[in-house]
Amino acid sequence: MPSGAVATRSTPVVVSVRPHRAEGRERVTADASRAMPKSGPLVDRYGRVHRDLRISITDRCNLRCVYCMPDEGMTFLAHDQLLSFNEIERIARVAHTLGVRSVRLTGGEPLVRRGVTDLVARLVAVGFTDVALTTNATRLAPMASSLKAAGLTRVNVSCDSLHPERFASIRRRGDLATVLEAMRVAESVGLAPLKLNVVLLRGDNDGEILDFARHARETGRIVRFIEFMPLDAQGQWDRGRLVPGREVFERINEVWPLEPVADPARLAPAERFAFADGRGEIGLISSVTEPFCGTCDRLRLTADGSIRNCLFSDDEYSLRDRLRDGASDDDVADVLRRAVWAKFPGHAINEPGFLRPRRSMSMIGG
Ligand code: SAM
Ligand code: SF4
After folding, report:
1. Could you read off the pLDDT of 273-316 as tens digits, one per residue?
2. Which of 64, 68, 213, 336 could pair covalently with 172 via S-S, beta carbons 3.0-4.6 A apart?
3. Ligand 1 pocket, Cβ-based, cut-off 6 angstroms
4. How far is the CA of 211 from the centre of ligand 1 (A)?
5. What pLDDT, on a 0 to 100 scale, did the predictor assign at position 13?
6. For the domain 22-364, what is the CATH code?
7. Per-residue pLDDT tens digits for 129-147
8. Domain ranges of the chain
9. Of 227, 173, 178, residue with least CA distance to 200
């Protein structure tokens, strides 16, 4: 089957396989497959138990952030290629029976898809302890109250600059004032503490590290500095544009001393630090320079219905066509188990031979 083709019942589940890994990495052998547990939680070959499902509900977006998409020329999935909310709920329900306890809606921009509030309510009814959302917040303000009422537990807002012109040059569409107002509204309806995601780009917004730290101190928002990852659709990532988390730590710590926040399990990707004077917290998501793969408990469902066990792996396990072909809950569970079991120990970005994944962040779901 050609790479990227869609699996049907008679074809293998893995729809996209290529030697994207550094040499020496092994795929699951028949022997290893036989060792896969058929019951209990979703565990991989390295003992990582998976409890977190990221659900992309659309690959579309109303912005064009420079580190994510080109200004023009993105092509998007047709509506019938997207999972319906019934299909998403079904997969989430099966994942819940296998021990998944938190879900996060993402995209693309999740709030451009109609009916998100209803989907949140349906996922809450499944029994997840945490139903969260990552958004660019351009449409959040008028929806915040109904999302909260539907049971949304947390919201992460992406905002890469506190200066209107720089915000516009990085995000290309939308405006800072709308996003700041949306954060205020979200907090006023109880979606707090809010996390604010900042992707740092050398030469663009790296001069704002202290401004964002001050923002965290003054607002109680948890500002998380994210390293630029090789997941932009244009393929223009380069290490020179990345600002290492260590540098962010040093620059802030010099002005406002930081203390690590005890987080023994470290399931969240962010390394957490509190200001020593007790005024707030920041996070560092150093996915490239200090990968957290060893404790990764995440699984992703793409908007077109494939399970991915890692942002940086091209292997996808198609569920959409299986569901539409009449797959049972046991079939879905089996695909989830196999996807987790096949997960590599790490993403290998820093190893020779690494190839960037074919699908970019907005297509996978960030
Ligand atoms: N549209 C929503 C938003 O921007 O928050 C949700 C989807 S977006 C893909 C999820 C997160 O991925 C955002 O915080 C965004 O800044 C981040 N992101 C996108 N492309 C990235 C890249 N190449 N490297 C690091 N983070 C990236
Ligand atoms: Fe859209 Fe989010 Fe990508 Fe920006 S990061 S282009 S808001 S999907």
Report:
1. 999 999 999 999 999 998 888 889 999 999 999 999 998 888 89
2. 64
3. 61, 67-68, 106-107, 109, 134-136, 158, 197, 199, 226, 228-229, 231-232, 361-362, 366
4. 20
5. 40
6. 3.20.20.70
7. 999 999 999 999 999 999 9
8. 22-364
9. 227
